Amino acid sequence: MDLKYVQTTCPYCGTGCSFNLVVKDGKVVGTQPYKRSPVNEGKVCPKGTYAHEFVNSPDRLTKPLIKKDGKFVEATWDEAYDLIAQKFKSYKPDEIACLSSARVSNEENYLLMKLARGVFKTRHIDHCARLCHASTVAGLAASFGSGAMTNSILDIAESKCVFVIGSNTFEQHPLIGRKIMQAKMNGAKVIVFDPRYTPTAKQADLYASFYSGTDVAILNCLMGEIIRNGWEDKEWVSKRAKGYEELKATVLKDDYLPENVEKVSGIAAADLKKAAEWIGTAESSSLLYSMGITQHTVGVDNVKSTANLQMLTGNIGKRGGGVNALRGQNNVQGACDMGCLPVVFTGYQKVIDEAVHKKFADAWGFPDGICEPKNGYEVTVMFNVLTENPGELKAMYIMGENPMLSDPDLTHAEHALEQLEFLVVQDIFLTETAQHADVVLPASCYAEKEGTQTSTERRVQMWRTAQNPPGEAKVDWKILCEVAAAMGYAAQFPYQSAEEIFNEVAALTPSYHGMNYERLNRPEALHWPCPTEDHPGTPILHIGKCSHPDGMGVMHPIEWKPPAEVPDAEYPYILTTGRCIWHWHTGSMTRRSETLDNEVPTGWIEINTEDAKELGIANKEMVRASSRRGKVEVEAKVTDEIKKGVMFMPFHFAECAANVLTNNALDPIAKIPEFKACAVKVEKITEA
Ligand code: SF4
Q1: Is 678 helix (H, G, I), strand (E, B) or coil?
Q2: Tens-digit pLDDT profile for residues 596-631
Q3: What is the spatial distance between Cα 380 and Cα 168, in angstroms, rounded to a whole number?
């Protein structure tokens, strides 16, 4: 028996835990602790424990598929490439759009970005960061000049006060939750504000539930209390921030007095005052948030407000402080870093900057040039264009994304995909999106290739090859090289290894300049920015100065605005959505993991006990939940652990898809949809 252990990085959340894959006779059969990772020190959550189970699922795609007469038939790779090349050559650049993936490696994201801009010459490339943290990228960049989590995961344990708003950290990023507990054991106060009494909330010293969509009012209230009591960090504000007087004038308005914000948010004035005191007087205070803050039509405002609070209290560029935006998927940070966004190349170098555009065009050497130096469409805009202006976008290449379950208003998303003349999906399973494709390319999972991923704390870590892809499936970066070759650009995609691709990324990306596989091949890896080969990496950003050219942080005065859709007589409840600890995003991997799927085999809707009584709904009863966009039948979970008037659904489950109900109203800057607040009604299902 051939048995070996291959150290790698978890393919699920953005925490970036490491473990060993157990490989028996060439197949991945289990996971084992890897104790040298400073991130997780040998511990993993249930998803990490069973991260081997989906790898050899019988559902894995093993051959290319081409749709003929509405049905998929198996094809050779050459047949698939010939069809893709013939079709994509027939479209103009602006008729093509590409979606990259928060699941695949940095190297593969970089190559899809190069394929889009260099081979297809389209400006339209984006990925699912648009749906989770586009507001973080925009909001933190406006505040600090860099749109990423400011401090490291390890640093959270150093904090004297941890304020969690819009994150169920213990279920979504469990090994970051462990750092919150370490801070608490070291004497930190933990504050959790959330509409649900989550496992994270249960560990708080101060917990308050609130109405989804009132974050700016809450944060302004906290800042007003801090200023009124003289708890602000006057030195930090005077030396390092711009915009204080405007911010002060806003947050001191009567609207944001605790007694008034209690009426808007549902948080008792006394709790708001206590939270302000704990945050304002702590030696250091760390703020953690996730999609509860970002997935709103005011997502960028919410993010800027978190930054305002942390600047006001001097908790930027400081140990135990920071605005810690917890990124969702394993490599959503890396996909952004690799320029899979419609406005930037790698390292957030602007597409519209002519010097940057020339730098990439020169380095890539396409004889017929690259895309125009213009911004492209965000994924949410692509889907709106498809339905509102049919014929403008005609073809799409989707690598490792499943918008048919992850996008808001799924009826609209399906209608949009149906408008395409030609859709290519590169994935490991025949997902809900792949079922709409004209060509499906069987790809590889994290256990089948070498590469890097960048976790939420900007730590760039390695994947290592544990087994071969199944059947005729191929490693994603090789597929992209072969598509480029079929399009006539083999010379621009000459790579023989993932390392060669990474070296090209590092050469073109200032924040990755000092990285190479030799340096990353160690337990602690490296945090970007790492500008030179002797630079140790940067676990904490903005020490001494922010990343704006003048080094200053920018405070933004922000007024609270309600969500785009609020409860009314017809749809009287607020629906918010999220994840559970056993599943991940659209469930394409976790629902094919026997252990995880056995734990939670389907979805539910959480209904407050009093609301359920008024509606005559019993626990575990099937109910119909409806919004202005659609309806789903789903099991009721009647509980006191959700605020009256608010309902919650996990979004992993196709058979009761929460996103049939959600609203695709967008933040005007980040173009992120308002997943976290829409109006719904819930009814008993009566026999026809
Ligand atoms: Fe994987 Fe995240 Fe769990 Fe760590 S916390 S094992 S990265 S899912």
Answers
A1: strand
A2: 999 999 999 999 999 999 999 999 999 999 999 999
A3: 25
Quote the tokens at residue 42: 């040998």
Instruction: Answer whether residue 1 shows pLDDT above 80.
Output: no
**Residue 291 CA, ligand 1 centroid: distance in Å:** 17
Backbone φ and ψ for 196, nearest 5 degrees, come out as -115, 150
> How far apart are the C-alpha atoms of 302 and 246, rounded to whole Å?
17
Q: Ligand 1: distance of its center to the CA of 590 in Å? A: 13
Binding-site residues, ligand 1, Cβ < 6 A: 10, 12-13, 15-17, 40, 44-45, 47-48, 173-175
Return the best residue to mutate from 13, 35, 169, 290 for the ligand 1 pocket (most ligand atoms within 8 A of CB). 13
Closest CA to 163 of 181, 201, 190, 203: 190
Q: Which helix (H) or strand (E) holds 504?
A: helix 498-508
* Selection from 249, 207, 223 nearest residue 304 by Cα: 223
Q: Tokens standing for 89?
A: 């050559």
Index of the ligand 1 atom closest to the CA of residue 44: 6
Question: pTM, whole model, 2 decimals?
Answer: 0.94
Q: List the residue whose alpha carbon is closest to atom 2 of ligand 1.
A: 13
Please give the distance, rounded to the nearest whole angstrom, from the Cα atom of residue 459 to the centre of ligand 1.
14
Average pLDDT of the residues of the chain: 95
Q: pLDDT tens for residues 50-81?
A: 999 999 999 999 999 999 999 999 999 999 99
- Which of 168, 173, 463, 589 has most ligand 1 atoms within 8 Å of CB, for mutation? 173
pLDDT per position as a tens digit, 319-368: 999 999 999 889 999 999 999 999 999 999 999 999 999 999 999 999 99
Whole-number Å distance, alpha carbon 12 to ligand 1 midpoint, is 6
Rounded to whole angstroms, the Cα distance separating 18 from 459 reads: 12
| Interval between CA 35 and ligand 1 midpoint (Å) | 14
pLDDT at 231 over 90: yes
Per-residue pLDDT, 257: 98
State in Å: Cα 11 to ligand 1 middle: 8
Q: Could you give phi then psi for residue 572, rounded to 5 degrees?
A: -85, 0
Sign, CA torsion 132/162/284/461 = negative
CA-wise closest residue to 509 among 527, 494, 528, 535: 528
pLDDT score for 688: 53
Whole-number Cα distances in Å, 669 to 43, 136, 378, 666: 39, 11, 11, 8
Pocket test for ligand 1, best of 7, 20, 32, 44 (most atoms within 8 A of CB): 44
Please give the number of the atom of ligand 1 that sits closest to the Cα of 48.
6
Nearest CA to 139 among 540, 548, 543, 556? 556
Query: What would the two tokens of residue 553 be?
Result: 């942080």
Cα–ligand 1 centroid distance for 32 (angstroms): 13
Cα(162) to centroid(ligand 1), Å: 20
Under a CB-based contact definition with an 8 Å cutoff, are residues 159 and 188 in contact?
yes
Mark residue 187 as left, alpha or beta (left: phi above 0; alpha: psi -120 to 50; beta: remaining). left
Residues 6+ apart with CB under 8 A from 674: 295, 296, 297, 408, 563, 564, 565, 662, 663, 664, 665, 666, 667
Neighbours of 359 (CB within 10 A): 14
